[in-house]
Each structure stands twice: as C-alpha cells, then as structure tokens.
Write a structure and sequence with these properties.
By secondary structure, this protein is α+β, with helices and mostly antiparallel strands. The chain has 2 domains: 71 residues, lambda repressor-like DNA-binding domains (434 Repressor (Amino-terminal Domain)), CATH 1.10.260; 182 residues, Beta-Lactamase, CATH 3.30.450.180. It is 48% helix and 11% strand. The chain is built from 13 helices and 5 strands. Helix 1 crosses helix 3. The longest helix is centred in the middle third of the chain and has 19 residues. The radius of gyration is 23 Å and the shape is elongated. The N and C termini lie far apart (59 Å). 28% of the residues are buried. Pfam families: HTH_31, MLTR_LBD. This is Transcriptional regulator. It comes from Ottowia oryzae.
Length: 281
C-alpha cells in the first residue's frame, strides 16, 4: 500500500519540517538504512522521503508513523517525532500505579509469583527494578548494600558495581562482557540518553576498566546459555541463566518500555538450593 505516491511538494513551517527531518534522518542512520530502502518499505516515494529529511516538506501523521514502523522507533520517540512535526502525541504515558494499569500490575505480579522460588523482576526502560518476586527481593536484600538499593535497584549497577553482585560472581569477566555488550546495543538502537548515561557510569567502575577487551573464554565448548555463577556465603553456589520478555502490542509508552527478567537454574543443584532457601524462609 503506497501511503504517499508521488506527493506534490508542500512547503511546511521551516522549524517544524527541519526538526522532524533531522530526527528521522538520525533514526535512519542509526538503523543503517538508505533513504530508498526506508521509502519503499514505508510506501512513500523516495523523492518525498528526501524532501522530509531535508526539511522541504512535512510528512502527514500517517506517513510519519509508517516511517517510524520501518525504523522501529520506540513509542516514546514516536511522540517526539509527532511533536517535532507539529502534531499532537498519539501514545499515552501513564504511571504504572495509575488505576487503569491495575490489570497489568496484577498480571505481572502473577507472573512473578508463579516464578518463585526462582528470582524474577519487572524492569523499566533504564533497567530499574519496578517489581520483584520473593526470591528476587530476598537476593537483592541479602547481597546489595543500601547505596545500591536506593532509590531503586538498577540491574546494571547491581551486577557490575564492585560493591554489588560483582564481588560474588565467579565468572564475572564473561558475565560482565555479555552485559556490557547488551547495554551497548541498547544504547545504539534506542538513542536513549538515560541508557547512555548509565553506560558511561558503569564503564567508569574500576573493575570494569580492569577488564580486558579480549575476555578469555573457559576451556571446552561454550555453554548453551551463558550463566551467571554466584558464590553465596549461605546458599552456596548458584548458576543461573536469564530470559527477558516484553508485553505484546503495547499502546502506552510506559507499557512498551517494561520487560520481565526471569532467572532459571542452570543445573539441578542450583534448583535444589533455591527451593530449600524458599522453604526455610
């Protein structure tokens, strides 16, 4: 479906057209796509795409959202594109504790509760913990100093800070290298200033600066999934791998930025230790 075939050149207010054009060009370059590829996938003419990026024409809201679909622009930034083009935002941004969010909160709470006795967390766009199950809350309370739990726990700080889980992570070099790669990709794909600031912060940690760029891998074949191996003073050694899931088809900025990170035992010994810890608690 061609949303804007052979559109005539319609001048737009300079400040609006230039602003949205620069934003779209930035997202296109971030995705490493050509004007031609984006235009064809979005159903607009390459000529119109060029006019939009250079500020000679302002896209309609429908064309703007089609371009955002092709460029996989997050909902938060889609609102920014609409505002830059002089249109009203389309996507709501409610607080997670808003009354109409209660069904989502209840569903996430059920998900986390069903995952006990294995740790589970709900995270926001900056990987701050907004909900945790009993196992996850117990793990954080036992292993993280108060400074890393206030005002909230951030996964990257908790795992990489030298006073956090890093001090009890047996395979810290491999686990940290994997986490840093994920963070680097998230910053590059999202263009999020908060994530970029978080990346700069963790890269300044002395234990992270000490890591070699060429992290030595253990001998033997690589594991099917890279586990986080923790050596805990009471529970003993835990080997955990993680999964991350998101909400399907969100129409709200807050919901689109939530994810659930669920940890699973990588071996039966870990599963038994976690079940025993839950039973004793």
């Amino acid at each position: 479906m061609n949303l804007a075939p052979n559109l005539p050149h319609v001048p737009a207010p300079a400040h609006e057209a230039q602003a949205v054009g620069a934003l779209l060009r930035g997202w296109r370059q971030r995705r490493r796509l050509s004007q031609m590829a984006v235009a064809l996938d979005a159903g607009v003419s390459p000529r119109h795409m060029s006019f939009v990026e250079t500020g000679r024409s302002r896209p309609s809201p429908e064309v703007l959202m089609a371009l955002a679909d092709v460029l996989a622009v997050p909902l938060r930034e889609r609102n920014a594109l609409l505002l830059a083009a002089g249109y009203a935002p389309r996507f709501s941004q409610r607080a997670l504790d808003a009354p109409d969010m209660r069904p989502v909160q209840a569903a996430l709470a059920r998900l986390l509760a069903a995952h006990d006795p294995y740790p589970g967390f709900v995270l926001d766009r900056a990987w701050n913990v907004v909900q945790a199950n009993t196992a996850g809350a117990g793990l954080m309370a036992a292993l993280l100093p108060a400074a890393l739990r206030a005002p909230t726990v951030n996964v990257y700080r908790a795992c990489l800070h030298p006073d956090g889980l890093a001090r009890v992570t047996v395979n810290f070099a491999q686990w940290a290298s994997d986490m840093l790669g994920n963070l680097r990709r998230a910053v590059a794909q999202s263009g999020d200033d908060d994530l970029a600031a978080l990346e700069r912060e963790v890269l300044a940690y002395p234990n992270i600066r000490a890591l070699s760029d060429d992290v030595r891998q253990p001998a033997g074949p690589p594991p099917l999934l890279l586990p986080c191996v923790l050596d805990l003073p009471v529970a003993g050694r835990l080997s955990l791998f993680t999964t991350v899931c998101t909400l399907g088809a969100p129409g709200d900025v807050t919901l689109s930025e939530l994810c659930a990170e669920l940890f699973y035992p990588a071996d039966e010994a870990t599963a038994e230790r976690l079940r025993a810890a839950a039973a004793s608690a």
